[in-house]
Every structure is written in structure tokens, then in C-alpha cells.
Design brief:
Layout (H helix, E strand, L loop, with lengths): L3 E5 L13 E3 L1 E7 L5 E10 L5 E10 L4 E10 L7 E8 L4 E10 L5 E14 L2 H6 L6 E5 L13 E3 L4 E3 L6 H6 L4 E3 L4 H6 L10 E10 L5 E4 L1 H11 L10 E4 L2
Parallel strand pairs: 10-14, 10-16, 11-15, 13-16
Antiparallel strand pairs: 1-9, 2-9, 3-8, 4-7, 4-9, 5-6, 5-8, 6-14, 11-12, 14-15
């Protein structure tokens, strides 16, 4: 199948930093969104350290300032003193008005930032190519920190209205014993991100949701908002990362 990709640059949404690069351990920009549209956000980064880690976080809000969704991409930079472009994909959910993208370095690590760009991306690609290019969500991050979530063999994710979103019921016994249906950690790191990376050639692009409460007597399952549950189900229409057990719980 011949793949075609058309990328249109929206002049009103492109920000190009032509001044001298700035130094900090955080770079933040806010921009307007069109609901249902997809954007590629990129920045050029340089640091004096070898393999310095950086995280790109995107926070999406509606017209009333209410939080809708977030996603994160963690990557190590080539280096030292080599410019490298870091990019992440933003898909605007219904009701979205603006997004804030934050590129963050580790504490104590100073980086130079330059050439920040936003491009609206129009796609005509099959599912396999979308996954290869990192233009879809590759896994689910459930932030359950602060709830004292217990690790379990069969953690589940429910919506506020009681819908079962994830249970991993089709997992084989061997996979359950070896890898489990989810991974756990206190913060995102390369090992956890590999859980939601289909292969080394694909960009990691997790959908991040916030756990609202615990569910069940074992306190190993969580409840998320109905909006986040719908966002997961919508994402699965393009790539079913839950079928690959690409799920990570962030815990205390």
C-alpha cells in the first residue's frame, strides 16, 4: 500500500525562536488547539552531558481551564554538546482549546533550547505506519501516586461509571508469570518506558491518566474519570496497546 503523508504548517501556530538559545532545565510554551486535530511539537536541545535524560510533557485544557488529558515522552539526548531535535505528538480531544508543552531536564542539568515549532499534521497512513512513526499512543500510564495502590497480579482499571477498561483477562499463564499484565514504578524511567514501546524503532507515546480512587478489597485496582476512560477507548481504535499489556502504574 502506498503511504501518503501531508503536513500543513499553520502560520498562526508556528513559533520559531530565532534569538540566541536560552539555558534552563525547563522550556514551556502554550498554544491553541482545534479539537480532533493532531500536532507535532518539537524543540532543539543541547546539553554538556552524555545521554542526559529529558521529558516532554503535554497538558491539554478546555475553554474553562479544566484539565482534559496529558501525555509524556522520555528520551536520552545524544551528547555531549550536540544539538538534537526532540518531538512529541499532541492529539486534541473533544472540547480541547489549548495545550501546554513542557520540555524538562533532570534536576541540576542545564540545557540549551532553540527552534521551538508546532506543526499541524494531516495523516493518510495505515495503522502500521502510524505506529512506526509514533503518531499514536503506544501504551497507558496510570498515575496512582498518593493513593497507596498495592501491586497485584490482576490489577484492573474502571471508569467512574463502573465500566471495566482494562483487566488483561486474555493473558497467558507464562506471560503473567514472566512479565505480569502491568509494570509498576515511582516515576517514568527507560525500563518502564520499554514496557509500552512496541520495538526499538518506534517512539514511545503514552496516554497518561490520573487514578481517582482505589477499587476492590485488595486495593490493587483503580478508578479513572469517564473522560479518561473514553480517551483510552478512542485511542484503541487506532492501536490496541491494551492487547499488548502495555500498561504502567505509577505508585508511591
Amino acid at each position: 500500500m502506498k503511504l501518503r503523508q501531508q503536513i500543513f504548517v499553520l502560520a498562526a501556530l508556528i513559533l520559531l525562536l530565532v534569538a540566541a538559545p536560552s539555558q534552563a532545565n525547563e522550556f514551556r510554551r502554550t498554544f491553541l488547539l482545534e479539537a480532533g486535530a493532531r500536532y507535532e511539537v518539537s524543540v532543539r536541545i543541547k546539553t554538556g552531558l552524555q545521554d542526559a535524560p529529558t521529558v516532554a510533557s503535554v497538558y491539554i485544557h478546555n475553554e474553562h481551564g479544566q484539565y482534559l488529558r496529558s501525555t509524556q515522552l522520555s528520551r536520552s539526548l545524544a551528547g555531549p554538546n550536540q544539538w538534537q531535535h526532540i518531538s512529541t505528538i499532541v492529539t486534541a480531544p473533544p472540547g480541547a482549546l489549548r495545550a501546554t508543552v513542557v520540555f524538562t531536564a533532570s534536576e541540576g542539568v542545564e540545557m540549551e533550547w532553540d527552534e521551538f515549532n508546532i506543526r499541524r499534521v494531516e495523516l493518510d497512513l495505515d495503522d502500521e505506519e502510524l505506529i512506526r512513526q509514533g503518531l499514536v499512543y503506544t501504551g497507558l500510564i496510570v498515575d496512582a501516586r498518593g493513593l497507596n495502590l498495592q501491586r497485584g497480579m490482576s490489577p484492573k482499571v474502571y471508569s467512574e461509571s463502573g465500566q471495566l477498561v482494562y483487566a488483561g483477562v486474555a493473558v497467558s499463564y507464562g506471560f503473567l508469570q514472566e512479565a505480569g499484565i502491568a509494570s509498576y514504578g515511582q516515576e517514568l524511567n527507560p525500563d518502564l518506558l520499554r514496557r509500552i514501546q512496541p520495538d526499538e524503532a518506534i517512539k514511545v507515546s503514552p496516554l497518561v491518566v490520573k487514578a481517582l480512587a482505589l477499587e476492590g478489597s485488595t486495593e490493587s485496582s483503580v478508578i479513572i474519570s469517564d473522560d479518561d476512560a473514553q480517551a483510552i477507548l478512542d485511542a484503541l481504535n487506532t492501536y490496541d496497546f491494551l492487547a499488548h499489556y502495555a500498561v504502567v502504574f505509577l505508585v508511591d
